[in-house]
Design goal:
Blueprint: E1 2-5, E2 8-11, H1 14-33, H2 38-46, H3 51-63, H4 70-83, H5 86-101, H6 109-114, H7 116-132, H8 136-150, E3 152-154, E4 159-160, E5 165-166, E6 172-174, E7 179-180, E8 185-186, E9 191-193, E10 205-206, E11 211-212, E12 217-219, E13 223-224, E14 229-230, E15 235-236, E16 245-248, E17 251-254, H9 262-265
Parallel strand pairs: 3-6, 4-7, 5-8, 6-9, 7-10, 8-11, 9-12, 10-13, 11-14, 12-15, 14-16
Antiparallel strand pairs: 1-2, 16-17
Helix pairs in contact: 1-2, 3-4, 5-7, 7-8
Length: 277
C-alpha cells in the first residue's frame, strides 16, 4: 500500500502498518490516562500517518541543533528511509524486540517515545546510511549528537543487524569495525572495542542470539559465537564458543553449553562458579 506523508509517497508493509496501528492505539490510551502528555504524544505520534514519518520526526526533534535544523534533519531521515526501506524494517524489528524482551516495557509506545537505547540504534542506522554514501562528516555529526543526547556511541561504519535490544543504553560503545548480527541483546556500559591503535579489522564480531551483560568489555577482533552469554562486568579477550557462558576478568567459560538463545530469554543468571584462590 502506498502512503503519502512527510516522507513522500512510499510503500509500507503490512508489518509496518500493524505496528503503527498498535502504537497509535497505545498513544490514544496514554492521553486518556494522563492529559498532561497529550501535546507531546500528538506531536510525536498522532499527527503522523505512518511509522516512518513519526520516526523521522522523533529523531529530528532529539538530534537537531544549531548546525542542522529540525526540518533539514527530518527531510534527510525521510530521504534515507525512502532510498533504503531496510532502515524502517530494522527499526520496526528493534521496537518489537524491546517490547518482547524488556520486562520494564509494557508496550510499543514507551520505547518509541522514551528509551534512549532504541533511539540511539535508529540514529546509528541513519548515520550508517550516510557513511556508506561518502557523507562521512554528516554521519559523524549524527554519531556525536547521539553520544551527547543518548550517551550511546556507535561508530557509523560498524555493521549492526536488526531485532537488537540495547537496554538502558548509557555508556554503550561500539567501535568502527564491530559487527553485530540479528537478535542480540546488550545492557548498559557494554564496550565492543579494540585493544590498541592498530588499523584495520580490530573490533568484535557478535553473532546471533548473544546476550552481553551490563558493563562487559569485549575487546579485539574476536568472535562471540551464536547464543553465547557474557556475564556482567566481564573482560572478554578471546573467542567465545557458541552457546557457552563466560564470566570474569579475563573471561573464562563456566558451566555447560546451553541450548537457549539468551538474547531472547534475557536470563542473566550464571552457573555455579568454583573460585580458585
Amino acid at each position: 500500500m502506498a502512503q503519502l506523508g512527510l516522507c513522500g509517497e512510499r510503500r509500507t508493509s503490512e508489518a509496518s502498518r500493524a505496528v503503527w496501528r498498535s502504537v497509535r492505539e497505545e498513544a490514544v490510551a496514554a492521553i486518556e490516562h494522563d492529559r498532561v502528555m497529550a501535546d507531546g504524544i500528538r506531536d510525536t505520534v498522532l499527527q503522523h500517518d505512518n511509522f516512518a514519518d513519526a520516526l523521522a520526526h522523533r529523531l529530528a526533534r532529539k538530534l537537531s541543533d544549531y548546525a542542522i535544523s529540525i526540518g533539514t534533519l527530518e527531510g534527510m531521515l525521510c530521504e534515507a528511509m525512502s532510498a533504503d526501506p531496510s532502515i524502517e524494517t530494522a527499526a520496526l524489528a528493534d521496537l518489537t524486540a524491546v517490547r518482547d524482551r524488556d520486562p520494564a516495557c509494557p508496550d510499543l509506545l514507551t520505547p518509541f517515545l522514551f528509551f534512549k537505547g532504541y533511539q540511539a540504534l535508529q540514529a546509528y542506522r541513519f548515520g550508517h546510511w550516510l557513511f556508506k554514501r561518502g557523507r562521512r562528516h554528516l554521519a559523524f555529526h549524527l554519531q556525536s549528537r547521539s553520544a551527547e543526547i543518548f550517551a550511546v556511541d556507535i561508530h557509523p561504519a560498524a555493521r549492526l543487524g536488526r531485532g537488537l535490544l540495547v537496554d538502558h543504553g548509557t555508556g554503550v560503545v561500539v567501535g568502527e569495525t564491530a559487527v553485530i548480527d540479528d537478535d542480540v541483546s546488550m545492557l548498559q556500559g557494554v564496550t565492543l572495542g579494540g585493544t590498541g591503535k592498530q588499523m584495520g579489522d580490530r573490533h568484535p564480531k557478535i553473532q546471533r542470539g548473544v546476550l552481553i551483560g551490563a558493563g562487559a568489555k569485549v575487546l579485539g577482533a574476536i568472535t562471540v559465537g551464536e547464543g553465547a552469554k557474557v556475564g556482567a562486568g566481564s573482560i572478554v579477550l578471546e573467542n567465545v564458543a557458541p552457546y557457552s557462558t563466560v564470566v570474569g576478568n579475563p573471561a573464562r567459560v563456566v558451566g555447560r553449553k546451553h541450548t537457549a538463545m539468551p538474547a531472547f530469554t534475557m536470563d542473566q543468571t550464571l552457573p555455579e562458579i568454583d573460585y580458585v584462590i
